[in-house]
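A reminder before we start the practical. When you read a complex entry, don't treat the lines as separate problems. The point of joint prediction is that each chain is placed relative to the others, so the output describes one connected object in space. Small molecules and nucleic acid strands, if listed, are placed in the same frame. In the example below there are four entries. Take a minute to note the order of the lines before looking further.
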Amino acid sequence: MATIKDVSRLANVSISTVSRVINNTAQVAPEKREAVLSAMKELNFRPNSFAQALVSKRSNCIGVLVGDLCGGPFFAQMMLGIERIVDKANKFTIVMSGNHDEYRERHAIEALLQRQCDALILHSKALSDEELLELAHGPTPVVFVNRQVPGAEDRCVWLDNREGTLCAVRHLTSQGHKEIAFITTDDMDFTDANLRFEGYKQGLEEAGIEFNEQRVVSAFPDEVGGHVAAEELLQRKVPFTAFVGFNDAMAAGGISCLMEHDIAVPQTVSVVGFDDIPYIRFIRPKLTTVKYPIEAIGEQAAELAVRMLDNKPADGIRLKFVPEMVIRDSVLPR
Amino acid sequence: MATIKDVSRLANVSISTVSRVINNTAQVAPEKREAVLSAMKELNFRPNSFAQALVSKRSNCIGVLVGDLCGGPFFAQMMLGIERIVDKANKFTIVMSGNHDEYRERHAIEALLQRQCDALILHSKALSDEELLELAHGPTPVVFVNRQVPGAEDRCVWLDNREGTLCAVRHLTSQGHKEIAFITTDDMDFTDANLRFEGYKQGLEEAGIEFNEQRVVSAFPDEVGGHVAAEELLQRKVPFTAFVGFNDAMAAGGISCLMEHDIAVPQTVSVVGFDDIPYIRFIRPKLTTVKYPIEAIGEQAAELAVRMLDNKPADGIRLKFVPEMVIRDSVLPR
DNA sequence: CGCACCGAGTTCATCGTTTTCATCTGAGGG
DNA sequence: CCCTCAGATGAAAACGATGAACTCGGTGCG
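Here is the predicted structure of the whole assembly.
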């Protein structure tokens, strides 16, 4: 691969002159600029980004930590939002998955840092607030997604999860439902899980419905888990006319289970999901759910990260998002 | 961030010695090694990967070009396979999306190359065989996924797409279906599309069924497109007892459309998808489909890439994959 | 006339590593 | 007792770029 030296030799100028035309950092006589340009083209020259990064202390990379890229479309959608912004800022994204595991999340962040990312966007689930706060105090700008880290509130872009399940329950109670179950994740260390659970309880309370822990079942937060949880719920023989899913995947799995038991959805049991992932529009019945504007959240997080590393003010960046109901066909009035 | 110099000073040795203990590249007296190790820990030292890459001409990165990370779980699954292998080789992955666009694919590859990736794994759809072949002749090892580039067959990891739709049609004909439609993508430049179409026609031919182009409809290859295409198929009033979807998403969209028209699936119309993406187990009816072992393909591609950049022989690497039917509930005998 | 200034170049130090080569030490053989 | 040799260590030259400092004519102004 050709270097800047080769170009300078071919164009009969010094390497600094070449550097100048590359970076447009100072004026260069038109004929020399032409010479450099054509030499660059002839040698198919592209600046070595490592050399650039080494001396300029800028890698032009933004590191992103996600849970997983495959557990569903959730993180993929977030990446879409992030990449749109990062791309616009002429930078690159490096993604690493933490797989919801403390050790691996830490490792991934280390790797991102070692690669001298200019900024980090972290969707950490397993690391403690303290550890994250310490990171935030480090030299590299950090943005947290989907989590409020105490002491770094101005760097957190998040959705009000409590409000989400609260909406879901309100929607159901407004339709006359009183026996509302909750199919949730078995990983209750996860802040989201707690908040969604609280929203659920608050919704019941608002409607004057007594909370019954028999109506709460938990399992792995995917389709299979939803299926398993619904099975358990049925076995408990506690009546319910509706359930709220921790996420759409669990809701879909739960519906799948009910149907196998010949329980009609939504005629017998109404269902509300959470997230509004793309495919749930295509399951039967079309799922009523709470929209998690993850793409927009990714965009704002990326925007914030870009601003931070440019030391620009973070004006107009939305930190808190509020969920919205998406009404489809899986809820019927009681 | 601490540098190797800081470490050497603290440990009272030369930087070469530090480098030696980092890389285990030569023997170092035990007490010095200890001193270095503890100094490294104390300073929280991590080698600057740019400096390393600059001098050693190795970035330890493998660049991946995908279509999109969000159009469905397809590429995410591929990444899962790739990352597993790359991680095992103690390297990193850099992903870029080409968004199925010629210009953007080229740009993404350029970016990957400029970042001095040690090897490239490309899922290119828009670039020409010639262009890819030229890349393959360049200094950076390249592996192509899901495409056979003439002249670089030993670097292509791919699925026999023709065989896939062939299987699908065979499955339907074996169940007595004769009027079989095909809901396909509108982007017929795409090699996969052509091969799947050929498989469909071949399947009909084998069963002695005359091909009727009225039974082929095309649209954007996602759920919405499937819906649109099915709508058109119905409008054409050409009878069909089954259809094969270009992919699962289109099949799901198509089913969704049929149901809205009160056409029962699979009682009235049987459906076979393609890909076996995770969620289609949860749509009603559970979709019978052709499995696209994309995760395994990703693994093999990554393995090949790693071998190539180590100049190791590519023994035992599977290049061609054969699709398999996954029988679920969306096909009924005629 | 002399001086400051200006634009357009060049030279050179620098970034944080790896790696080659030279140096030094001490042990063992003749 | 000296020479050789191996093993441990350090000094210094890359790697490819950037950017500060400097050079060199040529202007404009007091």
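Discuss with your neighbour: The mean pLDDT of chain A is 92. What might explain this?
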